[in-house]
Design brief:
The chain has a single domain (about 10-305), classed as Roll (2,3-Dihydroxybiphenyl 1,2-Dioxygenase, domain 1). It is about 15% helix and about 35% strand. The chain is built from 5 helices and 16 strands. The strands form 2 sheets. The chain has an 8-stranded mixed beta sheet. The longest helix has 13 residues, at about 225-240.
Length: about 300
């Protein structure tokens, strides 16, 4: 069994409009944009990162805004809901805030003894806020929200699956332990992990396969401390039969990827070097940062990429 994984690192999704996406996460949800860069494989598309003050692993939602991409079709084989941790007693505030900002179709419920508020993002993204009594993470409060209400980071993600068996086995190998099963959902946690240590498996045998597009999660990333731990995980996964990519330098972390039996793309990402490697903490996310292989395109990209503010 792998013991190097400590919970979620980041979640990466797709959007149809960069400015709308930026406004939703920085204003509506009150997160900090900690990096403005471009897709390594398609530099004419932004890669935007939102999180706490420094982009701590376990807090960072990232997006590829592909202009005018068709909306995704929800289904199995994907992350169904991305859930954020908020302070105990704050859901009433959030319901009023989101309603006042024009979000419709919110739904309050409770699962595993936790109160939740479900809502959709600009592209139909599935989100929920979860009241958590003990969350050690400090929120970003230099934006529009105070510490009594601000998002702490991820609570969990839910995976929609036709059958949970093989994915549950994989997560168990990755250090997750089953906590409880209720109403077709199995909750798994990493003991001693970070505050984003929960994965829910939703079994939906009669639901069709998802089709990715705007509003879909592209991949979910799990956190390891450093490159050595990552190599240990890669070796263990490959010895178990998984096809894992070589280590890829993503500037702010190193990454490996593999496809799960249930169809979800998993990434293992390092906590190092972090988002301060090319910007100081006071100015994270302000300047357009380019991977070295795309630096020669700066003038072209600055003309092409949609302004995020204004």
């Amino acid at each position: 069994m792998i013991d190097q994984i400590k919970g979620l690192h980041h979640v990466t999704s797709m959007a149809a409009d960069a400015r709308t996406n930026n406004a939703f996460f920085t204003h509506t949800l009150g997160l900090r944009r900690v990096k403005k860069t471009v897709n390594f494989d398609s530099p004419d598309v932004y890669h935007l990162y939102y999180g706490d003050e420094t982009g701590t692993p376990g807090t960072v939602m990232t997006y590829f805004p592909f202009p005018d991409i068709a909306r995704g079709r929800p289904g199995t084989g994907e992350v169904g809901t991305t859930l954020f941790s908020v302070p105990k007693g704050s859901l009433g505030f959030w319901q009023e805030r989101l309603s006042g900002l024009g979000l419709n179709g919110m739904k309050a419920d409770e699962a595993f003894g936790e109160k939740r508020l479900h809502f959709s993002g600009p592209d139909g993204d599935g989100f929920a806020l979860v009241e958590v009594e003990k969350d050690s993470r400090a929120p970003w409060t230099a934006g529009s929200l105070d510490a009594d209400h601000a998002i702490r980071g991820f609570h969990s993600v839910s995976l929609r699956l036709r059958d949970e068996g093989a994915t549950k086995e994989l997560l168990s190998f990755m250090g997750y332990q089953p906590l409880e099963s209720r109403d077709g959902v199995t909750r798994m946690i990493v003991p001693g992990g970070n505050d984003a240590h929960t994965i829910d498996l939703e079994t939906m045998p009669s639901i069709a396969r998802a089709a990715q597009g705007a509003g879909s999660v592209h991949h979910v990333a799990f956190a390891v401390e450093n490159r050595q731990k990552q190599l240990e995980v890669r070796k263990a996964l490959m010895e178990t039969g998984y096809q894992v990519t070589p280590v890829i330098d993503r500037d702010y972390f190193w990454a490996i990827y593999f496809r799960t039996p249930g169809g979800v793309l998993f990434e293992i990402a390092t906590n190092e070097p972090g988002f301060e490697r090319d910007e100081d903490k006071a100015h994270l996310g302000e300047a357009l940062k380019l991977p070295s292989q795309h630096a020669h395109l700066r003038s072209l990209l600055e003309q092409h990429l949609q302004p995020l503010e204004g």
